[in-house]
Task: structure prediction
Amino acid sequence: MMEKLPLLIAIAFQTLVGEKEVSLYTLHNGDITMQVTNFGARVVSLFTPDRTGRYEDIVLGYPDIESYLHNKGERFLGCVVGRYANRIAGGKFTLEGQEYTLPCNSGGQTLHGGIRGFDNVVWNVDSVSENQIVFSYTSVDGEEGFPGNLHVVMTYSLTRDNEFKITYTATTDKTTVVNLSHHSFFNLRGEAAGSVGNHILTLNAGHITEVNMALIPTGNLMPVENTPFDFRTPHPIGERIDESHQQLFFGSGYDHNWALDCKSINEPAAIVYEPESGRELTVFTDQPGIQFYSGNHFYGTAKGKYGKLHNRRESFALEPQKFPDSPNHPDFPTTVLKVGETYQQTCIYKFNTREQ
Result:
């Protein structure tokens, strides 16, 4: 299987960003081979077999570090997002009586940590083995406007059960807010292999966090019943995506947080099945929400690893996290981390195949 990895990727990632070395690391276990760079802790490629045993790279990525540095329109491919995943309204929140102002980088909102989020830093590689890599990063007090020196340790593991497992821990020396997530874009037929409209999605959630035109939660949990957002039973992603619904109009498709009904991390939060290849992705999480994004804002302006364009709705993301804009919604699950506490999170992407 190793011969299926494109050598040009390994060559193009040996470089410096600032004064820190950026490299590419190859992990393997079970039937999965994954390439990861410490720039943004990005998953660059992820090879899994289809039902016939044929391998494809099923995540979007670029062939060299320069493309990651300069393709800001498609900034979040395969990375960790933080210090706060998703949106914060107007780039402002109040914590312990003090208002904090963050840089706005998306229509007047702060998205995925701001201008220089965790996706745009070079992470330390604390250890690496055949199937595991441990990253760490200290976000200093005031970075992108957030309070506290936040120390994050994040581990990517490939298990023999064909799971890509992510664990996060974080501590702070000042009360702050934390919401981390992973942002790979998947196409279970392979990168740039056409529309994901035929991918069949199940989401274990009876509500979404309703949003306004800026994709900021209104505070209302909208029931999904009798709407295009009801994936409690399996539906193709493209089946209802263009229906007339205000929430679909605001998101240009699906770009919403589902409030999960899972009782524990052992219960699937999401399942995606691609009938042509037989590949199936199951997501497990201990977080209260998952952002499902249907790749609405790829415009065919950037080429991926194999020279093909990244086009609209030809990939999807499933991002386990707490709710968007939680610091401004006291009724939402808290994202506050205090001195002496430890932020902990686990996310699992499990891969298998079905015969039919």
Q: What stands out?
A: Residues 67 and 302 are 9 Å apart (CA to CA). The mean pLDDT is 95. The helical segments are 7-12, 65-70, 246-251. The two ends are 24 Å apart (CA to CA).
